[in-house]
Amino acid sequence: MNGDLMRRGVHLLDEHPRTRKEKRELSRRLATQRAETAAAQAEAQAEAARAAARIEAGHFVAEVGMRHIGMAADTEERLLRRHPYQRQAARLEAVVDALSALAADEITLLALHSRRASGR
């Protein structure tokens, strides 16, 4: 019956139910649709909240990473200005490389922690 009405361009709600059975069926369908709509809306809101948490965690990890990279570059620049000799510069470069590796490890740990916290 509903398919025939839809093909003719008439929605089920546009026709008044004639019998109690039709009224109950219409009421049941409306209740089902309301429940499905509410569930879909709740799921969409939950997904939006999860996405916002992932974005926030990613932003934090990127911010920390940029801070560490900047600190390593500043340290390297300052040390090379103070110690311009080639042998000292090579040793200082090794120290800065170690600091950069440590910063990269910390960024990786932060990323893993944020993924675990967001449930991924």
Describe this structure in a few short sentences.
This protein is an all-alpha fold. It has helices at residues 2-7, 20-82, 86-118.
Can you describe what's shown?
It contains three helices and no strands. Helix content is 85%, strand content 0%. It has helices at residues 2-7, 20-82, 86-118. The protein has one domain (2-118). It is an all-alpha fold and 120 residues long. α2 (20-82) runs antiparallel to α3.
Keywords:
mainly alpha; rod-shaped
Topology:
Elements: H1 2-7, H2 20-82, H3 86-118
Helix pairs in contact: 2-3
Unreliable sequence segments: none
SSE pattern = HHH
Number of helices: 3
Profile the largest sheet.
none
| Spatial shape | rod-shaped
What is the radius of gyration computed over CA atoms, rounded to a whole number of angstroms? 31 Å
Strands, count: 0
Q: Average pLDDT, to the nearest integer? A: 75
Determine the N-to-C terminus distance.
46 Å
Q: Beta-sheet strand percentage?
A: under 5%
